Amino acid sequence: MSSSLPISPSTTMVASQAESQPSSKPPAPVLNFPNSPIPKNPLGEGRYIKTAAALIIGDEILNGNTLDRNSNYFARFCFENGIELQRIEVIADDELEILEASRRMVQKYDFVITSGGIGPTHDDITYASLAKSFGQELKYNDETIARMEEASRHRTWMPQQNEEQRTARKRMALFPEAGEVLFVASDIWVPVVRLEGKLCILPGIPSLFQKLLDHLKPFLPLPTEDARPFRLQVFTPLPESSIAPFLTALQNRVKPENIRIGSYPLHQPGAHIALIGLDRARVKELGLEVEKELQGRILSAEETDTMIKEKRQ
Q1: In this structure, what DSSP letter does residue 92 have?
Q2: In angstroms, how far apart are the furthest CA atoms of the chain?
Q3: Is 60 exposed, middle or buried (CB count within 10 Å of its CB: 0-12, 13-18, 19+)?
């Protein structure tokens, strides 16, 4: 039996009138831009990304006005793709800070991302600062401007903008002249600009950041499957103080095997033990040892995924 309430004649008439009236807003265009061709390996043939760093740019992050979700997403992206994320920094919208951090990170890491500061307002200085950091001039990218116009043509405010406002909007297509402009998603006009073959400039808006990062994968020299770490989680009901001596001894024993042991306490008594290493069989063997010694239980892949999702909230 249907649980819906009967619709009165007046309700039906109002609904039909609303359906018959044309919308005052033109529909958003369905975007299907071509993606950029995959370029040569920027690190050199046969090399792949091993280490990474994230540079989160924005006063709004530092003053607590905006919650940074992008560094966490990038950390998961790196782990899932076999990249060792070694550093995350949050800095202000300050040219000197951007110059210093970007140069240092590009020198030290294989893959660097920036997040934030690429909009049309006065405090969006990431493109200009990074151009200066690597000795480049700024240049408008015609293809980006064309895609921006196409994606925005349904917006009613577009024809009403004055010249100063149009110039501000075009700042979002003013890139370091030697940067690679990579169009990675067919339904987004915003490209990823890559400098020095390593540093990828991404927006700060989490939905855009995440989508562009995910679609960037084919453009990155990622490690092969066998070079990606395996993570096993074990739950123990024992408090951390009780398991600490065993875990200390275990970590010292397996350190030469490049296996990492981590302990993460729960709100209730107990902890999750994480074992991470490249040798899947060895990690599973150690998981059985931890399970036995700490009265624990190895978590399934589904339980591990659920636990990680809960930690993100």
Answers
A1: -
A2: 78
A3: middle
Q: How many helices (H) and strands (E) does the chain have?
A: 11, 12
Report the relative pairing of strands 180-182 and 192-195 from DSSP bridges.
antiparallel
Residues β-bridged to residue 230: 277
Length of the chain: 313
CA distance to 2, 95, 181, 187, per residue, from 6 (Å): 10, 63, 56, 41
List the beta bridge partners of residue 176. Answer: 138
Alpha helices in the chain (DSSP H): 9-20, 59-62, 70-80, 95-108, 126-133, 142-152, 163-170, 206-215, 240-254, 280-293, 301-312
48 in Cβ contact with 223 (< 8 Å): yes
Q: CA of 264: how far to CAs of 5, 80, 235, 281, 296, in Å? A: 50, 20, 10, 23, 14
The mean pLDDT of 51-62, rounded to a whole number, is 97
What DSSP state is assigned to residue 52? E
CA distance 221 to 227: 13
Question: For 255-288, how does the pLDDT look when each residue is reduced to its tens digit (9 = 90+)?
Answer: 999 999 999 998 888 999 999 999 999 999 999 9
Instruction: Give the span between the Cα atoms of 145 and 159, in whole angstroms.
Output: 16
- Whole-angstrom distance, CA of residue 190 vs CA of residue 202: 9
pLDDT tens digits for range 110-124: 999 999 999 999 999
Q: Which of 293, 176, 145, 297 is nearest to 236 (CA)?
A: 297
pTM: predicted TM-score of the whole model, two decimal places: 0.83
